[in-house]
Amino acid sequence: MSEPILELSGLTKVFPGGLKALDNVDLTINRGEIFALLGPNGAGKTTLIGAVCGLVRPTSGSMIAFGQDLTRDWRKARARIGLVPQELSTDMFEPVKQAVSYSRGLFGLAPDPARIEEILRSLSLWDKRDNRIMELSGGMKRRVLIAKAMAHEPDLLFLDEPTAGVDVELRKDMWHQIDAMRARGVTVILTTHYIEEAEEMADRVGIIRGGKILMVDEKAAMMARLGRTEAFVTLAEPLGELPPAIAQFPVELQEGGRTICYRGGDGTGKGREEVAGLTKALIASGIDYVGIDVRESSLEDIFVSLLGEQQTDDEAAAA
Q: How far apart are CA 159 and CA 115, in angstroms?
């Protein structure tokens, strides 16, 4: 069984004016995992990170990190937590190497030029070590934020939209860097609008909306349980109606009877098996087809579906 590194229980934050940014959040993060927290703007992702990092004072609830109570003594545990904020907030006139070294010193660690060099090289910043941060591109500035967060060798690293505004090539390069952090034993919590990042890297995924955690599960289990299979069978000759042997499947005729559309597998993960059964039934019924296109739901499909269901529930409750 995995060892918890962070445990949140009943975490709630109500801002002056009544905005409830976090609503009774329960969440456990395991040591050594990459956890992706997905949600739309205003869902509470940044507030949750701020609470754990000591930037936001929760209204109620408990936070335990490394076995220590963050609500009582967050300073001690904070030394083991790194944060890459969403906003590019750093001294733009400071040279890269100096900025990263200074971040290490803020946590009371002795200077370690070799470690700083290792971090800068791993993020392709060594050649820019003497450049002022203002001289760097947007992607390089974001790498500096990651280097600053890694300088004090945290055990738990928060990345709040780490690749926002970064081009695709640089984004993929940063995915490799995040995977390398995990290989060194760092636990990574990632928030992102790019759902393919979560699909590429995360061990588990949490979905948050309106300050509430809608679901937390292993990525593969979530996709197997909530994913759907779609298949489009192009017929050699159009059909006027579906014969009984075909109509028993979750299918419908489209494009004037030239295409059979299958949508199923919801909650079972066995959609492809059912599609295979459909093709056998077509052959047995003497129905010829010239092409078949099968696709599985992506994590993005599941994310959009869950948010849509939650919005419908919220509207029904408000009615």
A: 21
For tokens 């969403």, what's the residue? 86
Domain spans in the chain, listed from the N-terminal domain onward: 4-223, 228-296
Question: What is the C-alpha to C-alpha distance for residues 179 and 307, in angstroms, rounded to an integer?
Answer: 28
**Closest residue by Cα to residue 11 from 19, 3, 21:** 21
Residue predicted with more confidence, 45 or 265 = 45
270/226 Cα distance (integer angstroms):
11
CA angle 243, 249, 250 (to 5 degrees): 120
Query: Tokens 């990459």, residue?
Result: 34
Question: pLDDT (tens digit, 9 = 90+) per residue, 245-303?
Answer: 999 998 999 999 999 999 887 655 577 788 889 999 999 999 999 999 887 766 666 66
- DSSP symbol at 76: H
Tell me what pLDDT residue 264 has: 80
Give the Cα separation of 267 and 303 in Å (integer): 15
Domains 4-223 and 228-296 share a fold: no
Instruction: Output the pTM of the full model.
Output: 0.73
Q: Was domain 228-296 assigned CATH 3.40.1400?
A: no
What b/e string do you get for 43-69 counting C-beta neighbours within 10 Å, with b at 16 or more?
Answer: bbbbbbbbbbbbebebeebebbbbeee
Cβ-in-10-Å burial (0-12, 13-18, 19+) of 128 comes to buried
| Structure tokens that stand for 178 in this block | 């995040």
Instruction: Please tell me whether residue 28 adopts helix, strand or coil conformation.
Output: strand
Per CATH, the architecture of 4-223 is what? 3-Layer(aba) Sandwich (3.40)
**Does position 319 have pLDDT exceeding 50, yes or no?**
no
H or E stretch covering 9: strand 4-14
Decide: 184 and 156 in contact? Cβ < 8 Å. Answer: no
CA atoms of 58 and 92, how far apart (whole Å)? 31
> What is the pLDDT averaged over residues 190-200?
77
